[in-house]
Amino acid sequence: MFTQAADYLNKLSPIFEPALLAELETKTMIMEVKAGDTLINMGQTIRATPIMLKGVGKVSRINDDGQELLLYYVKEGESCALTFTCCMMAQSSVVRGSAEEDCTILAIPINLMDSWMAEYSSWKKYVMTTILNRFNEVIKTIDEVAFKKMDERLINYMKEKSKISGSSLINLTHQQIADELGTNRVVVSRLLKKLEIDKKLLLYRNQIKLLKDL
Amino acid sequence: MFTQAADYLNKLSPIFEPALLAELETKTMIMEVKAGDTLINMGQTIRATPIMLKGVGKVSRINDDGQELLLYYVKEGESCALTFTCCMMAQSSVVRGSAEEDCTILAIPINLMDSWMAEYSSWKKYVMTTILNRFNEVIKTIDEVAFKKMDERLINYMKEKSKISGSSLINLTHQQIADELGTNRVVVSRLLKKLEIDKKLLLYRNQIKLLKDL
DNA sequence: ATGGAAGTGTAACAATTGTTACCGGAAATG
DNA sequence: CATTTCCGGTAACAATTGTTACACTTCCAT
Known about the structure:
By secondary structure, chain A is an alpha+beta fold. Chain A has eight helices and ten strands.
């Protein structure tokens, strides 16, 4: 168990300076989260900032009618910009964070984050890089939603999903895909069928196989 | 001219600690920008971080086809989160910043920003607050674009515009509105006409008068 | 095995938005 | 004053997306 923790922290050693790593080792907590679990819901106030050590997290926005929209994934070594800022400002979350796969997460108490900003330049850089990357991703999402049509959004979504999982097989129902894109199951089925006819992919129950020329 | 500069800085005194204000006074520059001028374009790297002292700025995203979409306004005392992060990471901008009205801007050299983060807690707080607010606004934009229909977006847009200018008169052509919403002039004309029939507003050439029950 | 739930395919239709085209009036320009 | 440009109204149509409904299959649980 302890060696595992050390292993995880080793992954962060290229990012953070030694003194900070030492603090991470003693002052933070490692948490295990199961796939599908919710880390934080909209409106909740967060108590600690997470760094993803293993697995993939998902950050999404849910509108008043309960409709969902995927914002971005949090991969290994990454964190969530919104948590940083929410933490530091003690604000409640405007998004939902959940575990896309089983996750191992490093939980950093709020008070540390704040002092580390002044103390460790590697931490400051990490925070700023995270914020910048997330801004870029959210703006990319805006591009998709504002300017792209559903067929292209669907394709990009599946490609991203495939990249995350490292497989050309996507294990999702049409309903789940529709939810993440903020649209309707029938629309997704329709577009997927068209893509299958165009030999871009193969459809199975609960599964989609992406072909090379997608 | 010097008294003016001092006046402007006085506006910031509730936000920043005295020592930081002193640094602001000696180490920054005040710039005047005309309405419509571009402050930064997509792809450009920024050289200084702006704080808006007077006037209103506009931050928008432009897609590959040249279509525009308004992200948010920068009002007095505010700054742009994207500039902070871009500055600190020396990244090029992914958005366009321009002057909505004539603006007076405080330009802060990049190198200062970075050290201030460690030095002044009021600065750190200002930066974090700005980032948080902008995230919220961008996510609000996502909500609009992803979940709302054009009529509601149009109404929200005009209300925001009216709030910014402090007037129920909006001096814009349908084309300009369409551009900022990322849609088509005919669509805007159509929806505006419907709103006029519903007695929500009055239409004139280059001008829209919002009525109370909009 | 069998009944029910879940997932998919599809049709039919509505609603929204985008596109093109053309007209007429208002403003600007000389 | 004449000409041109800009702005808005509107029709007609296309394309996209949303909605409802229903059939059929697969899977699961009792």
